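Hello everyone,

My group is preparing for a crystallization screen and wants a predicted model to guide construct design. The compound we'll soak is pyridoxal-5'-phosphate. Before spending weeks at the bench, it would help to have a computed complex in hand. I've included the protein sequence and the ligand's SMILES below. Output in structure-token form would be ideal because that's what our pipeline reads.
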Amino acid sequence: MRTDFLPFHLPDIDEAEISSVEETLRSGWLTTGPKVKEFERQFAEFVGARHAIAVNSCTAALHLALDAIGIKEGDEVIVPTLTFAATAEVVFYLHARPVLVDCCPRTLNIDPERLEKAITPRTRAIIPVHFAGQPCEMDAIRDIAQRHNLAIIEDAAHALPARYRNQMVGTIGDITCFSFYATKTITTGEGGMITTDNDEYAERMRIMSLHGISKDAWKRYTAEGSWRYDILYPGYKYNLTDIAAALGVEQLKKCCRFYEARKRMANEFSEAFADIEALTMPFVNDGVQHAWHLYVVQLNLDRLAINRDRFIEELKRAKIGTSVHFIPLHLHPFYRDTLHHDLREFPCATQAFERIISLPLYTKMTSQDQQDVIDAVRRIANDNAR
Ligand SMILES: Cc1ncc(COP(=O)(O)O)c(C=O)c1O
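Reply:
Good plan to model first. Here are the tokens for the complex, ready for your pipeline.
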């Protein structure tokens, strides 16, 4: 058995990131400036989008995106119930109402059929979340959005680099929001990026991300800038720092290498677990590139004498860190009491929640670390089989 605890996640940071941050610290320019511009340029090129706007979180990105498409009081925005708080809370920021929708049992992504049934005359937008890094069924979602005249804001917090039928995530919906939170596929500690091909949305999001003041306000402290600025709207304070962007520029260079390593490890997990009847492995649709941010197994509880919580406890005793993505929103007190959904609307997410465990999957893991995870999962499944 392991002697040290294997954390659920560790970032992959080396000398390149450390020197880049050091260089920025020595440059005298700490907040939004040349490094942010470089990060935005490189990110836009990487996903193939016309605009990339760096912000200080994916939550900020989602908020700015909803503002840009004009979400206002009384509007409805469809979101999956199996997601993180951020996806739905931003709808409340604009005094609109999130409408929760159940997932598909195999991919755990939003179910397009249920999504269409949730549309009302007040619906304005859909926020598909590419769960664990697997793109949602975007053909079906695009078709629904077109027929009902809805905007698509993608929550791609897990989905870098991901593809749907050869189209990079970041170029599919009207606006796409990425996260560089510490556990994500590339990180800036905290951070996010918004991509869009729409010039008007891009301009509005840039302005709103920095107090609603006129374009390139950050330049006012440079030789090219001027002290004068105009406030156009009451905006927010969502800009990314150059310190964070210095990390981001280096991490982005490694994004494909990190992805290849996670993909290999995910395949190794799936091969190693193939004969364990108590486990259902992640299912990958044809025609997608799954970013493998998370490796989420589902327990077949009818084959086990213990529940998910006990399974996690046993893994912890074996010194393996895990997580659960996610506690569905409809089970949280705020959403239960505010939205008054009927529990029967979410059979898939409610059942999946009892069965899911996210195993460690990151490039800093050694092959021995991965073997320890495999051995522990196998032993716990065997010892508690029924
Ligand atoms: C699906 C999803 N959306 C949004 C977010 C929010 O990202 P951030 O922490 O960058 O605001 C997260 C973060 O974990 C997430 O998992």
